Amino acid sequence: MSLFVQKYGGTSVGSIERIEAVADKVAASRAQGHDMVVVLSAMSGETNRLIDLAQQIQDKPDPREMDVLVSTGEQVTIALLSMALKKRGYDACSYTGGQVKILTDNAHTKARIQRIDVERMRRDLDAGCVVVVAGFQGVDDEGNITTLGRGGSDTTGVALAASLDATECQIYTDVDGVYTTDPRVVDSARRLDRITFEEMLEMASLGSKVLQIRAVEFAGKYKVPLRVLSTFEEGGGTLISLDEDDEMEEPVVSGIAFNRDEAKLTIRGVPDTPGVACRILAPVGAENIEVDVIVQNISAVDGTTDFTFTVHRNDLAKAREVLERVAEELGAKEVISDDKIAKVSIVGVGMRSHANVASRMFSCLGGDNINIQMITTSEIKISVIIDERYLELAVRALHSEFELSEPRAAS
Amino acid sequence: MSLFVQKYGGTSVGSIERIEAVADKVAASRAQGHDMVVVLSAMSGETNRLIDLAQQIQDKPDPREMDVLVSTGEQVTIALLSMALKKRGYDACSYTGGQVKILTDNAHTKARIQRIDVERMRRDLDAGCVVVVAGFQGVDDEGNITTLGRGGSDTTGVALAASLDATECQIYTDVDGVYTTDPRVVDSARRLDRITFEEMLEMASLGSKVLQIRAVEFAGKYKVPLRVLSTFEEGGGTLISLDEDDEMEEPVVSGIAFNRDEAKLTIRGVPDTPGVACRILAPVGAENIEVDVIVQNISAVDGTTDFTFTVHRNDLAKAREVLERVAEELGAKEVISDDKIAKVSIVGVGMRSHANVASRMFSCLGGDNINIQMITTSEIKISVIIDERYLELAVRALHSEFELSEPRAAS
């Protein structure tokens, strides 16, 4: 018997009409004989409405009470969907995070799941009942309501699929899958039928915002096949699964990711002594500024080096302030910054076994006279920082260079 | 140390401003050194909004899911009030019915409280924390969310006060207490400082809609002193407590209740055989029609009798239909009905020990030429059915006859 966990986001349950449409989809899967667990977000807009109420009282609302408040959003949708399923003649039963014992730590508003008690769900599934679970929420071991943070419903879906050893976790959203790159930039961008967890992680963290990163990590760790599909259109979506080398010929590159939100900072002429990287970055981290790309080249003949990193554009002013202070302490030459940059990356497990992918990328960009300012690489990803004016051009050139518009070899 | 349970209704927490005002009141009590438990309803309008969502899906929504849905209303207000208390520097912690283990039976949408686990609340109270509990809701022994039905927050307040052996249960509402009669009918109607549970029950069931009857019954059973006060005005409200004869000189009559919603049905010339009352009323009850006043006089010389009772006006047509059928079966003469009637009652534990209260009532009404159509009596209440045109006149005459505008003897 196959068991599917289906997760529907806020847009998918944003009105009574849409909840009825979700009920149709769930009922259709159930009618095919599949055991069904459904995870729901709050109706779109509802979580923001609740946060707004709280902020009218406290600028920084108490985290424990915030979780009590916002967790009501999903509680509403699970009740309504269960009603809609019963109306269609299907047995259904709704559960809050606390009721199915989604046990988390007590980090309110950003809790992490520790354990799920599946006994009650198993009993319902065995009785042919559709189990409808509130996403995004749990309880700590004292019974306090917790939430997993924004987008946490994806994580709930994957965690339930892992605990119940589900056949597949299906994430229904408003896009119909994962694309080789953003179709708004490249017309011929193609939906991928399959992608590996690692590739998806690189794609997600680089700006293809389809799935919550934590959910993908979780799915990879517990080997839960994850499928992204559209609530509003038909189609098989994209299956995110383990890298199964035997079964398919890997393409070299799976997709092109990019990000326009970064800014670059360089501290020039730093005396290159051991521990200098830490002395530069620790004060930045202490201000809660996240650093993305970091590049340090070998020292110049005078024993100094240049150290460059990127941060989110919103953090540039604060980061620069910190860095000016650090530069003075270290006796560095100067601090320069630039927020007119963009990051472009090629991602693919295939590049592990193919040499020359990097040089092919650089020569392609060079062919269009795009200057590369920084380069970083990992096993399955190569990222470059370029002038933001050339972003679209670079993405289109690379998409074409690696033949991403062509269907992959059969999988 | 005194412990107060304060319950605030939907109007009292109907907006952020009002929740802030409730926080001020609670904080003031806490600042006086009282231990505080607060029970809240949903923001006014919220429960109806949720019911409306459900009814867009199912005409008769599934009761279990209905409880999951509507219980979110109180969950929102407890979180917001706890935030408002913390903003004021008071420690506060919110709990759903499930979290403080308000254990009920499994009669969804109209569950009854069976037991409350006070351990966690005691711990919080001992630590100086204000405990904020969602009214109207609980869980059954399988952990399913239940609700107590409309107005159930009063019951939650009283049940918590009983379990915690509270000094007083204070019900904050939009009226400032219990009056000798409706001030809209009698200008000089006076707020009662005290009233007994029994009197309050008679007043409530007769139409002075201040408190939920079940809450008053519950308070009487567990001897929880109950105080009704206004959220919006200062004042000591009305204390509902045991009849303490020693402490005060009872007035003969405490208040005048009335009801315009009834209709009267008479079945005439019924053969007066044993069991005839049951043969008349059982079919009415079988149609879920509630019967209020019942009067049967001794039989006439021909061995037949007339049997009269009242029902809610909305049920008149259905009741008459049932009664026509019964009349035919029993060989009765005819069925007549009248919906232009009203019920007026005098209520007071004092009448137990005073003769002639009834004759004083009847002579007062007779003095104004008001014809009495039916009479029923209990130990602490006398009710008459009259033509509805004379209702206001009757209430005013009786209010004056029993000197209800005068303050009671010192209590």
From TrEMBL, chains A, B:
Q: Which Gene3D superfamilies match?
A: Acetylglutamate kinase-like, VC0802-like
The UniProt record lists the ACT domain at: 265-349
Q: Does the keyword Endoplasmic reticulum apply?
A: no
Could you tell me what reaction this enzyme catalyses? L-aspartate + ATP = 4-phospho-L-aspartate + ADP
Give the pathway annotation.
Amino-acid biosynthesis; L-methionine biosynthesis via de novo pathway; L-homoserine from L-aspartate: step 1/3; Amino-acid biosynthesis; L-threonine biosynthesis; L-threonine from L-aspartate: step 1/5; Amino-acid biosynthesis; L-lysine biosynthesis via DAP pathway; (S)-tetrahydrodipicolinate from L-aspartate: step 1/4
Superkingdom in the source lineage: Bacteria
What InterPro entries does this protein map onto?
Answer: AceGlu_kinase-like_sf (IPR036393), ACT-like_dom_sf (IPR045865), ACT_Aspartokinase (IPR054352), ACT_dom (IPR002912), AKii-LysC-BS (IPR041740), Asp/Glu/Uridylate_kinase (IPR001048), Asp_kin_monofn (IPR005260), Asp_kinase (IPR001341)
Transmembrane ranges, per UniProt, are none
Task: Give the UniProt keywords, A-Z.
Answer: Amino-acid biosynthesis, ATP-binding, Kinase, Lysine biosynthesis, Nucleotide-binding, Transferase
Q: Report the GO molecular function annotations.
A: aspartate kinase activity
Question: Might you give the EC number(s) for this enzyme?
Answer: 2.7.2.4
Task: Give the family from UniProt.
Answer: Belongs to the aspartokinase family.
Q: Which NCBIfam families match?
A: asp_kin_monofn, asp_kinases, PRK06635.1-2, PRK06635.1-4
Name it: Aspartokinase
Taxonomy of origin reads: Bacteria, Pseudomonadati, Pseudomonadota, Gammaproteobacteria, Cellvibrionales
